[in-house]
Each structure stands twice: as structure tokens, then as C-alpha cells.
Amino acid sequence: MKILLINGNDKADFLISALKAKGHTITVVDPDYSRCRALADTFEVTAFCGDGTKEVTLAKAGAEQADAVVALDVRDSVNLVACELAKNRFHVRLTYASVNNPKNVAVFKQLGVDKCVSEVDWIVNQVEQDSLEDNIKKYLPIENGRIVICEAVIGDRSPALNQKLWEIGFPPQSIVSCIIRGEETIIPQGSTQLAAGDKIVLISSSRKIDEALSLLSGGKPRKKTG
Prior knowledge:
alpha/beta, Rossmann fold, Alpha-Beta Plaits, six-stranded parallel beta sheet
């Protein structure tokens, strides 16, 4: 793909390197002449010194031939204008914008930006996902505590991700009774494959619950006393 990269400061270095390694052709637009020169010399890319929110600059940089525009400025307003100009004036198929304020993501999408990348949102989602991966959202002990019904969530790093139930190797006295996937409720079979975000309703003896949960979360079983 021919990719037009607008601004980016230090972010551009890593992105250019990664994209070039995948065989993409990169053209850089940046208002800092010394920055353009450094990127051109270091990564052997074409660089244009100018304002990426100006039509004349994007035209000189070959926006009409670009398959994608990636706007990485620290100012959301710059990224939005650059993407809108690329999409509406030069009919670039794909526009990507770095969004520093997560509240702006919805606005960017409404105005036609194809993909928005919010570092803050990503970090928050990871923290929330990690907390869910630590296993249990709720316990419901029955039969004087001998049997436990609990709910666990399959995260991106779960060892059970994309595994079929028969492949997981649950301990005896443990069974997955139900899988909640979005709005769908699944009564599982041995061939049922687990996906990220699945909520697992697990029934187990109290002695085996930690072992069963560790197979879903990847955490170590908790030690019991007594």
C-alpha cells in the first residue's frame, strides 16, 4: 500500500519502520524541515515539509495516489482536518487518526474517519480486561459450600482462548454449564470453541474450583487452608 503519514513526532519512527518491514511505501508530511530530512535519511522514505491540513501540501505529497492516510499529530483537530481533507478532496480509501482525547472518537467516526486509535482507551480496556482475567466475577456456593457456581471471562491472554472444551482438560467434578457470548446463550458441547469475551458459567466442587479457573484465566490456583 501507498501510505501518507502526517506528522507523528517520535511515533513516526516506529510506525515507518514497522510498515516498511511489511512492504508498504511510505511518504511523510511534517512541518519541521529538519525532521523531514532526518526521516528521509534514516528510513529512505519520501518526505515533504509542510502543513498536512492544507490541500496544496497533500497534493504535492501525492495524496491522490495514496491508499491510506495516517494522521499522528498530538492535536486532535489537526488529525481530523487532515483525514477529512484526504477523504473528501483526494478520495483516499482509508484514513487513520490518532485521537488523544477519547471523547473525540465518536465525533471522528461520525465525520468519516475510518479508524480511530486512542491510546487512553486502549490502556483502559487492557486494565479492565486484565482485571477480568483474574478470574471470578461472582461465586454462588451451594450444598453447604461443597459445590460452587461461578462466572469467569475469557480474556485475550487466556490459555483456553480458541480452545475446544474437550481440549482444556478440566479436572473431575468440574463442568462448563453455560457460555454467554454477547446476546447469545450457548449450552456447550465438548466441541464448543471458546472465544475472547465469552462469559463462562462453571460448576465445580469447592476442592477443584481453583484448578478449573486457572485453566481459564492462566493464573495459579489459590492455596487453601484447613
